[in-house]
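Q: Protein A?
A:
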Amino acid sequence: MMSRGTVTTRHLPATANLRLSDPAATPPRVAGPTPNPSISSPSVPSPATLSSSTPDPAIPAPAKAWDDAALRVKIALLVLLAAVGGVLVGIMESRLQHRIWPLLLGIPLIAIPITRLGHRWACGPIERMVRLLLAGDTPQQPLVPRLPVDREDEVGQLARVVHRLGAEAAQGRQEARQLRRTLDDRVEKATHMATRNLKELAMRDPLTNLGNRRFLDEYLPELFESCQDSNADLVCIAIDIDHFKGLNDTLGHGAGDELLRVLGHLIQGLIRHEDFAVRLGGDEFLILMPCCTLTRVRQMADQLHALFRQHTRVVVRNAIKPDLSMGAASRLRDCAATPHELIKRADEYLYEAKRAGKGRMEGA
């Protein structure tokens, strides 16, 4: 932010810009979740797709067309076969003079095929469906592709219902995960914004909307180091309001606070985007101007003097008008090796201005 021209400095955090945002600004409202295009919805196979795919070996394909007949038809056919078989056994027994061996031979011959057909047509598919539902859905063996949705009987109808419910559940889980990711991202951004705003408020002087001493202690070393690395100049201007105590004593602290606010606004309007303005406390201010010539510093100081004096002539009703004393120190000219030495040299120039009669600029 501060590098313009020759300074190749590392970026300071957003709070380092002393044209701080409006205190009334609030973090952007967290909008409702929006679909994330990078997250694709689950791909759930349709019944048609499943019917055309290779059947699972665990579910044997029907060998005959009547395997897909309705369950009531199969049961009726089994009852009919049992009745016919019973009639045939009875006829055989009567013709053989009611001997016992036709019963012993005929009943097993009828019961075994009917039992096997009943298991194949009715009990077997239902048992396999129950085993699939009890096994559930696992990453190794998904439930939906193994359902016998290609059957036309009641088992197939049940499989298609389970398939539809499974597809809806999978889609719901995916949408829930997407919603959770979106909300987490929104909450993280809102939290980051709120934290940044709180940090910015902690480094801002509430009266003048300039940076405070905490801001200066945190970011001046980095600014000074960046100018050293780029062999660029850094000018520090110390400002003090003359006769400020007399103004507070005669007109009250409200008038003094208003004068401080006016000076803060004037400084903000005159410095460049890459410059930094700080209120150290009381009526002491500090301006840091990287990559700035002393000629430009003198022009800015003259404009600040003129505007401040114009305001005090109109507003301050006091015999002794407040004025500004300034001292400007240059990192290159004054050979300042540390930020502390730069500020100390600016204070020395400020005291020279005070001793020379106040209302003037020394060091530039």
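Q: Protein B?
A:
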Amino acid sequence: MKRLLGSLAAALLLMAGSTGLALALPAERAEVAQKLVALGVDAVDASARVEALTDDEVARLVEGIDTLPAGGGGGGGPLAIIAGGVCVAVAVLILLPIVIVTIVYQVAKHAGTSRPSAPA
């Protein structure tokens, strides 16, 4: 049985090395959790978050947790700008006709009353 498990472990390590995958050891997961706690994450939350990570993600965090950007990973900046622009365009397209109709109505309403009467 030990020989079978050893063969399976060797095969997994060989596959991981040939495919470029990284197998995270429990020590690496503990190291990442400790670094998260040092950065201010609650210990229970850090352990849960590290357990939810894939082996590749753990390997990347071990290599450079201090140099990775904080937050969700970015990419939201350009999307937020586009969404904001669309919202402004829609607001302008809705409000512009209302403002124009209001101005035309006010001008037409006062146009008939502001003319002086002709001398008789």
